[in-house]
Every structure is written in structure tokens, then in C-alpha cells.
Amino acid sequence: MENVFDSKDAQNYIDRINNLVEDTHGLWGRMTVDQMLAHCSVSYEMVYEPEKHKKPGAIAKFILKRFVKPKVVGEKSYPRDSPTAPQFIVKGRKNFEDEKKRLIGFIQKTQQLGASAFDGKESHSFGKLSSQEWNNMFAKHLNHHLAQFGV
Predict the structure, then answer these.
(1) Which InterPro entries match (predicted)?
(2) Could you give the CA distance from residue 39 to residue 147 in angstroms, rounded to a whole number?
(3) Do residues 97 and 34 touch, judged by C-beta distance below 8 A?
């Protein structure tokens, strides 16, 4: 698995994103390319703009930590057409260029902060994660959706 904290791997994600164009169509799913970029940014919003998203209650957080976390932070890839959490659903069209710049900015910021900034950092939904779990979560999600759009 790629390392989102490594400058070469981060640049690889940016290059893949830069290969997208406004009319790139997904190979599966219903999202448009601009919605996919906005969707991928949600993981980063929960880190850098946490006020944008409501935190799960105690029962929901327990369920997320117990049943969802292993699938999200583990190394196994997501299958096509995997279900998504409600806060990750992007409705309506977005500005492609704005969403592209925004996601690239999040990737760059994460890489520049480095793994040490994420080791033991509290996740919005899963509690404290190791830097490897943060890496897996970011990398898997990016790979899944960039592959969905053929890059």
C-alpha cells in the first residue's frame, strides 16, 4: 500500500488526480467526477475542518469502532459499490477545478505534516488511530475512487 506521508507517493496521487478531466466518467457507481473529488475530501475535512461534520453519538461510535473501523483502516481494498456513510454522500454537482484543488491541498498538507502528526490522533468516528491506520484509511479511499474513474 502507498504511504500518504511519503512525498513520492503523495505526488503519485496528485498526478492521478491531475489526469482527470471534467467529463471523466466512472467505471462503476453513480458519482460524477466532481462529486467523487468532493467525496474524497470528506475524510480530510473530518481532520482539518471537523466543525463541518457532526460527531457520532456514543452508540453509533461504538458500532463504528467495533464493526466499521477494521474494514476502513485495514489493508484490504474496498469492493466496488461499497456502501458509504451518510456524511460522505455528495449531492448536486460541484465545481470540478475547485474540488480538484481542494483535494490536492489536503493530500499535500497531510504529507507535509507527516506520520508523526497522525500517530495516536483522534479520528472523528473511530477513536485514536495509529499513523499506519490513518495511512491505510486515506490511501485505500483514494485508490478506490481514483481507480473508479480510471486513473
Answers:
(1) DinB/YfiT-like, DUF1569
(2) 14
(3) no
Encode pLDDT of 27-70 as tens digits: 999 999 999 999 999 999 999 999 999 888 899 889 999 999 99
Half-sphere exposure of 41 (CA within 13 A, CB side): 21
List the domain boundaries for the chain: 7-148
Question: One-letter amino acid identity for 40?
Answer: C
3-state secondary structure of 125: coil
Q: What is the DSSP string of 78-121?
A: PPTT----GGG---S---HHHHHHHHHHHHHHHHHH-HHHHTTE
Residue 67 sits at φ, ψ, to 5 deg, of -110, -30
- For 145, the enclosing helix (H) or strand (E) is helix 131-148
